């Protein structure tokens, strides 16, 4: 048994506690033991810690991370076919799916009937390494693993497991974006990533955010226009990434004839949003929800970051470098200018 550490979250209003534990010396079929090299504090982690969303306590939070394979069950491969071997630098999906249930068979593995989610599981003291806020993580069977290219820094690669892959899933919904007017609502981590991805696919991207500093950042990620509010009926595609009910309503109003609204930001409870069914029907609108993502989306995320990290300042989206024992400080700092704070568990 190797001694390792994890940060135990005991519920809203209580500090994280660093706990020592042993990692297994042997793995079951389909499992991988990874060292967590860097993790980032996601907005979902903040919602959990602040009581805005229900989550089991105690637990080990964190689901955006990059790590190194220490040991692997035989025969495992990454999404692109790369063998999973010790020393390989990787990111892994936020979910582990069975691959056999009716949802998996219907190409919805992200909603598997037996879904396990990193950073969202009740703490099992005998097998606690299920989240990114730890020195190690045991990857379960059915986890998508993607190899990280050598030239991609940890601070850029880590958010791929949630933010970047979620955006890839959202932008897969409307299909071809070339020449289309795309509204991106919310210029946080997901928003600026969506701006860059849609821009690279040939869209005319308008970023909407009430905060001037965020609008300025969206412009640096390729937005053709940045505005505090969207014009009604002007867009082919509207991607909502802030989760604010008013923003959801604005996206629905912003659609042109045949427009597609992709809602991906509403991951915690909010006020209901009214919808005009006649307008949806007569305008041939499509409204789609996106939550989690499919395996291919994580590969797309890493490929995009590797190809475009020099054009867009993704490294500036992550600040800080907190030890595991400083996780409370990392969470407190997450309200600052950078959308993510980095935790280095080792």
TrEMBL record:
Cofactor(s) in the UniProt record: Zn(2+)
Is Cell division among this UniProt entry's keywords? Answer: no
Record Pfam families:
ADH_N (PF08240), ADH_zinc_N (PF00107)
Q: What class of enzyme is it?
A: oxidoreductase
Q: Which SUPFAM superfamilies match?
A: GroES-like, NAD(P)-binding Rossmann-fold domains
Reading the lineage from the top rank, the first entry is Bacteria
Q: Which UniProt keywords apply?
A: Metal-binding, NAD, Oxidoreductase, Zinc
Instruction: Identify the residues that the record assigns to the Alcohol dehydrogenase-like N-terminal domain, covering every copy.
Output: 29-150
Alcohol dehydrogenase-like C-terminal domain residues: 190-306
Q: What family does this chain come from, according to its entry?
A: Belongs to the zinc-containing alcohol dehydrogenase family.
PANTHER family in the record? ALCOHOL DEHYDROGENASE 1-RELATED
Q: What is this protein called?
A: alcohol dehydrogenase
Q: Which species is this UniProt entry from?
A: Amycolatopsis magusensis
